[in-house]
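Work Package 4 report. The design task specified in the project plan requires that, given a folded chain encoded as structure tokens, an amino acid be chosen for each position. We show below one input record used in the internal validation round.
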């Protein structure tokens, strides 16, 4: 899910979703689904993604919501997995079906974080709460900025669903559309209150949201184009593999520059020491010569006095 979407024609829309207005055809998210034919063979169909598909997908469904959505949901999960790599009880999943019980839909959250997982092998092709024994502590949905119908599912339907189930924290993220620099990344979220209802998570002075269940801060880069994640305990930013490599190279360059500077300082110090040694040697030579001349003058003076007597 999250591949680039293509523009549909009215002919492709007709008979599939008559509720889509003419001016929103280009903003439709698409669903890829394998359908079994009467003869037992399978055919892949491409049709507009409906809110019901999105809220309660079938196994194997793949929906296409544009590059911005795709780039983001392939970036965040590995970042969180790397951060929690030393915590075997923490599982981070992406686009995995969650089964909360027989009376609930089976959504596929973009990002799910669960703590206290006793057996990671119980989470494979789906996340069954009754089998795993714990609820996710944090669910993240990346909103499709184009398809208004699907956006309402994230902002309303899933909000109600996750609140009823008792998911401690629910965060929504809206990345800017590719090529639109005037837009900024947006994040907002909810935390389950004492009365069992969602309350908005207030951002800090830097506009970051604190996830208490994961001790992570979600913020926006100064350019407004991307998400930044920080460890709330240390204040350090979480970096992906490319960013880590860039940071490593930058650290190496800094270390090399520091070594060159230190080497230059050592050479300057040694040159100063050599100069000081030469000056000291010259001073001693001058003092010795002066002493010799004084001694010679005293000798000559003494010899002259004796000769006159």
């Amino acid at each position: 899910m999250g591949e680039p979407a293509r523009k549909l024609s009215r002919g492709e829309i007709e008979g599939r979703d008559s509720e889509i207005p003419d001016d929103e055809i280009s903003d439709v998210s698409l669903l890829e689904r394998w359908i079994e034919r009467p003869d037992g063979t399978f055919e892949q169909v491409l049709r507009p993604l409906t809110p019901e598909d999105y809220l309660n997908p079938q196994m194997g469904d793949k929906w296409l919501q544009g590059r911005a959505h795709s780039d983001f949901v392939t970036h965040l999960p590995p970042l969180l997995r790397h951060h929690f790599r030393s915590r075997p009880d923490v599982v981070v999943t992406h686009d995995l079906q969650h089964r909360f019980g027989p009376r609930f839909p089976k959504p596929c959250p973009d990002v799910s974080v669960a703590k206290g997982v006793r057996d990671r092998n119980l989470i494979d092709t789906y996340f069954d709460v009754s089998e795993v024994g714990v609820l996710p502590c944090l669910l993240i949905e990346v909103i499709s900025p184009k398809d208004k119908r699907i956006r309402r599912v994230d902002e309303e339907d899933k909000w109600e669903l996750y609140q009823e189930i008792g998911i401690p924290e629910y965060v929504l993220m809206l990345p800017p559309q590719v090529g639109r620099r005037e837009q900024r990344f947006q994040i907002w979220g909810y935390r389950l209150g004492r009365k069992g209802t969602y309350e908005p998570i207030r951002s800090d002075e830097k506009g970051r949201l604190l996830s208490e269940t994961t001790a992570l801060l979600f913020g926006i880069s100064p350019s407004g184009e991307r998400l930044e994640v920080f460890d709330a305990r240390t204040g350090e930013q979480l970096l992906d593999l490319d960013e880590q490599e860039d940071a490593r190279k930058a650290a190496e360059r800094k270390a090399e520059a520091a070594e060159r500077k230190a080497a230059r300082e050592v050479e300057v110090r040694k040159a100063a020491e050599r100069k000081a040694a030469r000056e000291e040697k010259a001073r001693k030579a001058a003092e010795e010569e002066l002493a010799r001349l004084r001694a010679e003058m005293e000798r000559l003076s003494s010899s002259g006095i004796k000769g006159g007597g």
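Residues 241-308 form the longest helix (68 residues). Validation will be extended to a larger panel in the next phase.
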